[in-house]
Specification:
With 442 residues, the chain is an alpha+beta fold. It has 16 helices and 19 strands.
Amino acid sequence: MGSPFVDGIRSIVGSQHVLTGVELSPYVVEGRSPEAVVFPGSIEEISAVLRLASEERVPVTPWGGGTKMGLGPASQRLGLVLGLKRLHRLLEYEPGDLTATVQAGMTLESLQSALGRHRQWLSLDPQFPGRATLGGILATNASGPRRHLYGTARDLLIGVTVVEASGAVIHGGGKVVKNVAGYDLPKLYVGSFGTLGIIAELTVKLRPLPDDDRLVLVGFERLEECGRAARLLMGSDLIPSAVELLDGEALGRLGLAEGEESALLIGFDGLAEQVAWQAEETTRLFLGLGVTRHRLLAGAAREETWRAVREIGRRVFPEPSAVVKIGVLSTQVVEIVQQTARIARRNGLRAAFGAHFTLGLVTGVLAGGQGSAQPVVATIKEWRELARSIGGHLALEWAPLAVKEQVAAWGPSGPEVKIMERLKAKLDPKGILNPGRFVGGI
């Protein structure tokens, strides 16, 4: 990327909003540096930057808070990093309508703070809310424990403004909850990892803050009993906001263990009387299932525990060797945790697990390897084959470059990738937006 191109970028956004040289160090990903970083201050500037990049066929890497930059295959060339930190304003907020329109560079924590003054919130709880931006959360469809009750970003998105690779600005959806006309275009960009367009603005639906919010930690002697308790909870009349399972290794590493082999962390929120009754009801529900303790957490203790659970991939081991996501049926969670743990031990590695139990989403964290990538690579490949054998899948969420070079981040592609390739070709015909980052090398 020659200086004429960089000069062109500077003429669009101003020299003070373009980084080059040693200033690029915070934006190095897996040892690869971008050739420049640009921070547009408006949709018009995003559009002009993308038009120029498209003309020059320069790859563009969208960057919100950088919390998910380790997810996906290693980029062969970052090209131009397009940062959205200058687009951080709350544009429109109608408390009476329970809707808000925000710029994509606003962090979730900043938005929640603004909404909290009116006793409202955006019902998402992904990791690192102080860094994660709304645009990045949409682009990666990030979520946390409360996904169990409240869903993901896809369920909360009403409208979106996106800048295509050509620089064209498109608007999808609207600013009211009951907007149902036409195709549901906003959903197309959720989880697309910035490969179809740059999300610039979004409108979301909100909820009132619950009167009470508690976390029940229930420890069990055996992992099988923990799984039975979770299934019993799912079949009961209780309405938890989150149901998380942690194995003994994760509990110990997070400082939550008192000798248990596993635990359920169950969230309840809503009216105070309902929350109190449901929290107490779990004691009766789990009688005879080897419960070792039943602890109620609220306030700061609850928040810190949830934070640890959300950030399990970076919390359980000081130096993790890899973090994976495994998707299976909820009835297979206990089995997959037990078998993958045995595989890790056989290969000389330590492993810890957490799971959004009711969704069948398991996070596995590996540590060890004595400086060699081979035990980690062999373990992940075995895990992937095991998951596939029971109809599940495995994605590599984070790993060193030495591991990523030998293990496909997303695994084998299915027939649906053909549709995704056609969409990519239509919306980004020159392939400049985050090339190779998504499934099937899109």
